[in-house]
């Protein structure tokens, strides 16, 4: 059976500290594989100590350990905010390893800032962009297949049988002819003494028994029962709790506050203004310091107390006189109106094809619409929180830290501690949507800890988290479709009016890459419809309000505009929206497949929706994003009071690696979309 051979993506660079390998778990025997750019290596877990590498000093980007008690440990640096990253990575390994899923644990490395963990696309230590599965798909599957092959080889050696006569399942190797079997734990030490196969054969998707199947999520029981540890659960000797009161208007300075009255309250240790330097360390090593931008150094007053409720009680007594702000007259409605004035600007082209200008001029019919989206809060389940402990020559952090490079920036900028003296302890995280990629909460926690000389737990209340920074950018889109006499698509035009997301975080980026990729998702070469003429462009407009990445970044507004206009075109042509899309996706069979599947799950009835009930309609959308193919059908009911209820959603997604997920849910919510009652 021939299977595709994988590629490895991790850079081959020197490793940082890996104290995990020096713990007792790594010294008690078993099989330990290290995964790196040049392949998969082996370490004897019987060694008295396991340090960095020997010859060549190569750097693993993950470890697979099979213990004598039949446990499988995957040490991998990817952050999981509750979206299932650890679950997915563990399943990828366990699938090829033929492991018992109940015996697989996915844990973080001791040093998330090891150079081996640099994101290969971004040059920083970060998890994001829905890249974890795609980057590690081949790597972890190959590691699992390699470990399996070594375990089977060891069993065959012990039993003096041919390897091909053995098979494996649920962390056990079997020899059907003799009835003999041995667990992976029993075989691990012997397998560690054997050779590492240079090549392994990976499974075909139709052979998967774990991936794409109904399985319990990794550690879900711990989260349900409260055993999972979040930043709020961290307890350290001498630790204090801090909150920060930010100004009611962004960028307003602190003029004065009643420090004495607040300090006199029970449990309060100190009250002072936050002071962040004007220039901070770059998130990449060996780069010059960068100016503070995008609201990273917001003014504020911090209250440090023995516990959170003492700080919250003190907040009610605190009286701050705030200074002027350049955003005092900022109004989001005014911003949207101003953006609408630029929907016909030429902008920076992100994708062009054919003769769009001529196509629109000569088309028998043109359909167009303008769509706007307001600023949107992240509102993740767990408000931002982080623990920092600034010591004389070291800084430690605890929390759901999505971008470890932020800790390096904060330690260098605030504490004057180099990044190789930074330790990070990653906890669970209750959602992110981009919020945990931020720098401001880590800068603040570091500043407070340095001033107090104690470990500090910085907690944002729900109100602080929602009312404070950051937000997803407001945007305005103008979409146009040129139709022939039969209503078929001849041309498509889109203007996305939105501020740059990348430039504030990486000053100078647009001088090198003039079209911000974070603003043009779905409207570059990833535009998915087969249309002869295209004119897609980004119109940069900067209202001056700090913004940040937010779940799916620019796919949200861009795809909303594209799919809404496709619906308008289908309606104008008098054609079924599903069939209309299918014809325009002739070169995208995967998208056609998920569209067809979603329509079946939703009970879509082509050109005949009147029998589903008065005031009800169905809407459909499809797109390709982050190497996955997505189709959604919404069944919407408009009641007499004009409230909208989403009766059900049916969607079908197929990842680029053939991981498929079916989900049908029923829920009620406010709805804004392109569903049209028929």
Automatic annotation (TrEMBL):
Residues 225-326 form the Aldehyde oxidase/xanthine dehydrogenase a/b hammerhead domain. PROSITE patterns: TAT (PS51318). InterPro entries: Ald_Oxase/Xan_DH_a/b (IPR000674), Ald_Oxase/Xan_DH_a/b_sf (IPR036856), AldOxase/xan_DH_MoCoBD1 (IPR008274), AldOxase/xan_DH_MoCoBD2 (IPR046867), AldOxase/xan_DH_Mopterin-bd_sf (IPR037165), N-heterocyclic_Hydroxylase (IPR052516), OxRdtase_Mopterin-bd_su_IorB (IPR012368), TAT_signal (IPR006311). It comes from the Bacteria. Pfam families: MoCoBD_1, MoCoBD_2. Gene3D superfamilies: Aldehyde oxidase/xanthine dehydrogenase, a/b hammerhead, Aldehyde oxidase/xanthine dehydrogenase, molybdopterin binding domain. PANTHER family: ALDEHYDE DEHYDROGENASE. This is Molybdopterin-dependent oxidoreductase. It comes from Caballeronia jiangsuensis. The lineage of its organism: Bacteria, Pseudomonadati, Pseudomonadota, Betaproteobacteria, Burkholderiales.
